[in-house]
Design brief:
Helix content: over 70%
Number of helices: 10
Radius of gyration: 19 Å
Distance between the termini: 40 Å
Oligomer: single chain
Structural class: mainly alpha
Shape: globular
């Protein structure tokens, strides 16, 4: 499954077809979507942490939507080649938080909520622009990419495995979460993510969640036509 996902990567398909214009448009749209999704996701973590009393991320220059402050070259290449990547994590000093578990939950969930809100807004633009205007295909394609990357980023990050946000959400909601289980997941979380990816379980989960979210967005905006 993982090998097929690489060989079916649109970059390879564009190259095989000799569609260089399509390749350039795809790469530009992907770069835009990844930059927006990561920048707002990490900004949300830093912003909420700052509002809850921890200026660590702000002092490190992370409370910004400037993508160069959040994106790493390796993480970006992984997004382009494997369609799954990572950004620089936002640092949080728990000693500055007055209510650690509540604040950790809010900081952790902020990025996911922000990505979903962005996807919701972009879907609205896509829905009405596509329905009522003669928008060029590349604009609609860019909007589709913005919607898809933001939803995928939200779904992936809410998985309850370290180092993802979902694990912080889980441990914040379940303060008695077993210490041994937490230690095991911290040690092998990334390996488990790779296993889920290679086995095709992770793509299946993300496709299922993506379909449900898109259906919900469509149902909402259909109320206005």
């Amino acid at each position: 499954m993982f090998f097929r996902s690489i060989t079916n990567n649109p970059i390879i398909l564009y190259i095989q077809a000799g569609d260089w214009l399509g390749l350039v448009i795809y790469l530009l749209a992907l770069l835009l979507a990844v930059s927006v999704a990561i920048s707002f996701h990490e900004w949300a973590h830093a912003f909420v942490a700052y509002k809850l009393g921890d200026p660590t991320a702000k002092n490190m220059g992370r409370m910004t939507i400037d993508p160069t402050k959040h994106i790493t070259l390796i993480g970006l290449l992984c997004f382009i080649v494997f369609r799954i990547g990572f950004a620089r994590p936002v640092m949080v000093n728990s000693r500055n938080l007055k209510h650690y578990r509540r604040d950790d939950f809010l900081i952790s969930i902020a990025g996911v909520v922000t990505n979903l809100l962005l996807a919701f807004v972009f879907f609205g633009v896509y829905f009405f622009v596509g329905r009522y205007t003669e928008a060029p295909w590349y604009l609609l394609f860019a909007l589709e990419m913005l919607i898809g990357i933001n939803i995928s980023f939200a779904v992936f990050n809410i998985l309850p495995l370290p180092p993802l946000d979902g694990f912080h959400v889980l441990t914040s909601m379940l303060p008695r979460f077993g210490a041994k289980v937490s230690a095991f997941l911290y040690r092998y979380g990334f390996i488990l993510i790779l296993i889920l990816l290679f086995a095709g379980i992770l793509p299946a989960i993300m496709n299922w969640a993506y379909g449900g979210i898109i259906t919900a967005f469509y149902a909402f905006y259909s109320l206005f036509i």
